[in-house]
Fold this sequence. Notes:
The structure is a homodimer.
Chain A: E1 8-15, H1 19-33, E2 38-42, H2 47-53, H3 59-67, E3 70-75, H4 89-101, E4 106-112, H5 123-126, E5 132-138, E6 142-151, E7 159-167, H6 168-184, E8 188-193, H7 199-213, E9 220-225, H8 226-235, E10 242-245, H9 247-260, E11 268-272, E12 280-284, H10 301-313, H11 317-334, H12 342-351
Parallel strand pairs in A: 1-2, 1-3, 3-12, 5-10, 8-9, 8-10
Antiparallel strand pairs in A: 4-5, 4-11, 6-7, 11-12
Helix pairs in contact in A: 1-10, 1-12, 6-7, 8-9, 10-11, 11-12
The complex binds 3-isopropylmalic acid (2 copies).
One 3-isopropylmalic acid sits at the interface of chains A and B.
Amino acid sequence: VTSENKTKNLAVIAGDGIGPEVVAEGIKVLQAVAPGAFELTDYDLGAERWKRTGEVLPDSVLDELRQSDGILFGAVGAAPGDKTMPSGILERGLILKIRFAFDHYVNLRPSRLFPGIPTPLADSVIAGKEIDFVVVREGTEGLYVGNGGVVRAGTPAEIATEVSINTAYGVERVVRDAFARASRRRNKITLVHKHNVLVNAGGLWRRIFESVAREYPDVATDYLHVDAATIFLATDPARFDVIVTDNLFGDIITDLAGAVTGGIGLAASGNINPEGRYPSMFEPVHGSAPDIAGKAIADPTATILSVSLLLDHLGLADESARIEKAVLADIAHRSAGTSRSTSEIGDAIASAL
Amino acid sequence: VTSENKTKNLAVIAGDGIGPEVVAEGIKVLQAVAPGAFELTDYDLGAERWKRTGEVLPDSVLDELRQSDGILFGAVGAAPGDKTMPSGILERGLILKIRFAFDHYVNLRPSRLFPGIPTPLADSVIAGKEIDFVVVREGTEGLYVGNGGVVRAGTPAEIATEVSINTAYGVERVVRDAFARASRRRNKITLVHKHNVLVNAGGLWRRIFESVAREYPDVATDYLHVDAATIFLATDPARFDVIVTDNLFGDIITDLAGAVTGGIGLAASGNINPEGRYPSMFEPVHGSAPDIAGKAIADPTATILSVSLLLDHLGLADESARIEKAVLADIAHRSAGTSRSTSEIGDAIASAL
Ligand SMILES: CC(C)[C@H](C(=O)O)[C@@H](O)C(=O)O
Ligand SMILES: CC(C)[C@H](C(=O)O)[C@@H](O)C(=O)O
């Protein structure tokens, strides 16, 4: 019995809005590809729970999550007009709390333009090109640390600060992870930052990037300011293989990357603690989309691809690849233009396995 | 004799790379549309000057610039591979120094998809749509203040910080400017921030935005997180009229906005001190592009449109509009696909005036 054959504990945080709808399909596919391999525990967290109980993420729940082998996360968030829910409560109290508590320093976001998928980019940009890159976004530092404050709030003399904290420790480990990925892919890596303005943080990123690069003579390196990176994502996304960047820049460019490669309905992500000291968390990049919740029209593909990333992380590489293949085949059919419900898409992918 | 008829002093900072090439055409057009209206003073600043003299922007030059009625800026920067020039020297010592010294709190960046201009976006995104919006980027606060530092530089224990400073004073004045613009345009304004993560700065921006909005009941308001904003810039740019945002988000989304509306060869900008206490500075959004410098192939259109913004700011609204019209007419011809030199484009626009 290898460790891969032991039943694994998967914590499931379906969340709000379309979260539960897409997560149901992710689990359907998981159980089709690896029947009996996972024991699931549902956690009721998100806007609904907060409204009912005032709780975001009790310590006892965090302790339970810590015992799991992995976390599948849907999406959380109240409706946009809902003013009862202060901004940031769920983001900082739940998603970011888990990313930081479980040291998810590799926020992995693959982008691939699958054949047949509509994209907002012109044919001239994509024709004959293979668009297949991955953003390695740092997940535990930068402007996401929650450092900063407000003085004289609500007065004409208010001052609000946000502090971006970057350490050699934090930057080096994620840069190393990104170089290792590049060397397993097409040997090309691009650092995205803004070191001409953010000279302190940018200098640190740059020096570490250049020093790790010397250990990977076969990996071609490139640098782009974040503003220029958005231009290339729109005009020549095929130029990228691995992008490594900080937390906020990674947040911004991966939404754009998702948009140009067929929409965030397809964008999967992993919040990874590579050493496995803590459980990693896998989630679609999209949000809870309250406007389409309950209509059974949400695309579960991003969640299903997140399950594929989860399996790969847990050493079930075959199962992971099989899901990806099934998704690819399913997507190829979509070009026909028929529109299916959330569960029809999940069924189709699960039954192809 | 109205004040518009007095000769105005224009400071010209052509800079490096393609800077002098495109600025020459901007001045050609300026002199064609308003002969004798401007007295020009050239300032030799940029990478070349720094290499020769070690000087970036001597105080005496800043004092002279302060006496001008306006500044036309080309682009500065050494070649990308040039390691003799530390990152940030010119950006922080020259461009940002001027923006901050002259209180350019409105960084105005119009984006318009002119008919006939190629765009990386698919027909499905742009067909039948009018894409015409303006980003009002705050220019004197946020992460651009140069606050932060490095501890234990170059060691494995290095810590680098960047502090974003935001004040009610600074946010309110730029938000007011943006609302006033929206009320003169299509009455729609979008705040772009990331208040679910940057709760301090985001809260300040949001409260001020909502309070100024109450004074403009006819202006429809919208809010987007910066990551979502990049998605819409790629998938539905026609939805925007005025966008108001902070310094860094504005930097990022205006490059993307330029890319989707025909490339930053067309993107003009104004660094404006609306009260006229200090001279305002007008510049193309693009950089010095050393790779194409000296080949006479740089597109001077962004600089020529920046001259149009300059004239408008100085009260020469007719002349400003005439340049815009001439550029539009010229662009309409470009669809023919003939490629012209930098000066041929300048000549064509100047002679159409
Ligand atoms: C919801 C929010 C905290 C989150 C982020 O900013 O990281 C989201 O935008 C993402 O990209 O996962
Ligand atoms: C050169 C740099 C300092 C500048 C900025 O970041 O503002 C540029 O990117 C711009 O957009 O004008």
